[in-house]
Amino acid sequence: MDEFETELNDEKRKKQAQSWVDRTVGQIADAEQRMKVLLERLIDKNVLLNFCWTDTTSGKRRLDQYKNFVRLFEYASRTMLFNTVVFNHGFVASFFAKTLDYVAQQVG
Questions:
Q1: Distances in whole angstroms, Cα of residue 22 to Cα of each of 29, 37, 38, 102
Q2: What would the pLDDT profile of 54-98 be if each residue is shown by its tens digit?
Q3: What whole-number distance in Å separates Cα of residue 86 and Cα of residue 65?
Q4: Distance between CA atoms of 29 and 43, rounded to whole angstroms?
């Protein structure tokens, strides 16, 4: 995860990742479904168990600290509003908080 986050600092690598996102989930109309499929393709659920969204007391790594990774999901969930691309960080944050809680509950 750390290596992927670092790779996304490189503009060329970021563009390659965005192109892959477009090919992989770009045809899915629902933004939340796009993020679900993307997450399944990028990370094994067992790896997700090591992450929380923002809880500093859980002893888990904070996924919100992986800014480039999160931005990839913002890119995947973007919408158009009057010919303007809209990135919704709040929607992505809610998705990750809900998903990480769900994964933790499945094990616990």
A1: 12, 12, 10, 26
A2: 887 888 999 999 999 999 999 999 876 776 666 788 899 999 999
A3: 22
A4: 22
